[in-house]
TrEMBL record:
Enzyme class: transferase
Compartments reported by the entry: Secreted, Cell wall; Secreted, Extracellular space, Apoplast
GO biological-process terms attached to the record: cell wall biogenesis; cell wall organization; xyloglucan metabolic process
Name recorded for this polypeptide: Xyloglucan endotransglucosylase/hydrolase
Active site: E117, E121
Organism per entry: Musa acuminata subsp. malaccensis
Length: 335
């Protein structure tokens, strides 16, 4: 006969497993498949510092002294107006101060003074300190208002591939790490043109950010330790492609509705709230030094604000600022 305590334990275990499965599920989209490099991408710069592996389904980007000026990178062949974009990324190991790896969307080459942008930026560190991750959102050239958030990771991003994804629709933007939603930006009337609304390309780059990336530029890229290698795989471009000549999209109305219909379940919202409480180290919404009057979308941040200092830094970050060991890499470490 099963005891009441055993029954409770089994119930709790099943609940956690169910939550983990629901919280880490991909958006339900038709034909959500990975592409080879030739099917969807083109090289930007870095010449021989971009190499293809696994029959063109994995990309190797390297930064060394020869490519210090520009780095290495690739971009999608098409512009997209909304969609789901994803890649599995493995970051350079050991000393990587000053190194920046970016996975982002932008149209700065088309709209130089009014560009939109959605960023995942990975900031390298000195030996013994973990990589930091930040997300950012720009719309209509609103670079004067930085919307950065920074996070610690619950795994070592240099040991294996981890998935980073962006959902962009007319209504919202959701950033994911290993399919766990970590940030949502909902379009509001108050944001106006600051919400990205023009077609963008997808980019992946590695470059020298020595002037700012690590401790405000105190630690710089050491090219004696180069090359610094970032690997990309499981490349997904699922969006409304746009003709760059006239910016017309071939997407049907049903396609646009498909992306707008993607929201978060209650389990996903719970997972996101737990991630943010446990792993977010900075948020512009809580930075009263930089923004004495918060940007309009920050008026509704709720109880999250009690976890942050006036500088926008998380209170717990001061207790862990000297670095930490990585814990479990599973979703259990987040939930």
């Amino acid at each position: 006969m099963v005891s009441s305590s055993s029954f409770f334990f089994l119930f709790l275990l099943c609940s956690v497993l169910f939550l983990s499965d629901e919280a880490t599920s991909l958006p339900e989209l038709p034909n959500l498949t990975t592409l080879s490099f030739e099917e969807g991408y083109t090289q930007l710069f870095g010449d021989s510092n971009l190499l293809l592996h696994r029959d063109g389904r994995a990309v190797h980007l390297a930064l060394d002294q020869r490519t210090a000026l520009l780095g290495a990178g690739f971009a999608s062949q098409d512009l997209y107006l909304h969609g789901f974009f994803s890649a599995s990324i493995k970051l350079p190991s050991d000393y990587a101060a000053g190194v920046v790896v970016a996975f982002y969307m932008s149209n700065g080459d088309v709209f130089e003074k009014s560009h939109d942008e959605l960023d995942f930026e990975f900031l390298g560190n000195i030996r013994g300190r973990e990589w930091r991750v930040q997300t950012n959102v720009y719309g209509n050239g609103s670079t004067a208002v930085g919307r950065e958030e920074r996070y610690q990771l619950w795994f070592d991003p240099t040991e294996d591939y981890h998935q980073y994804s962006i959902l962009w629709s007319h209504e919202r933007i959701i950033f994911y790490i290993d399919n766990i939603p970590i940030r949502e930006v909902v379009r509001t009337q108050a944001m106006g043109g600051d919400f990205p609304s023009k077609p963008m390309s997808l980019y992946a780059t590695i470059w020298d950010g020595s002037t700012w990336a690590t401790s405000g530029g105190r630690y710089k890229v050491n090219y004696k330790l180069a090359p610094y290698v970032a690997d990309f795989a499981d490349l997904i471009l699922h969006g409304c492609a746009v003709d760059p000549s006239d910016h017309k999209t071939a997407c049907q109305r049903s396609d646009a509705v498909l992306y707008d219909a993607i929201t978060m379940s209650a389990d996903q919202r719970t997972a996101m709230a737990k991630f943010r409480k446990k792993h977010m180290t900075y948020s512009y919404c809580h930075d009263r030094i930089r923004y004495p009057t918060p940007p309009p979308e920050c008026m509704f941040v709720g109880p999250e604000s009690q976890n942050f200092l006036a500088s926008g830094d998380a209170k717990f970050n001061y207790r862990h600022r000297r670095g930490r060991r990585y814990g479990r890499s599973s979703v259990d470490a987040v939930l």
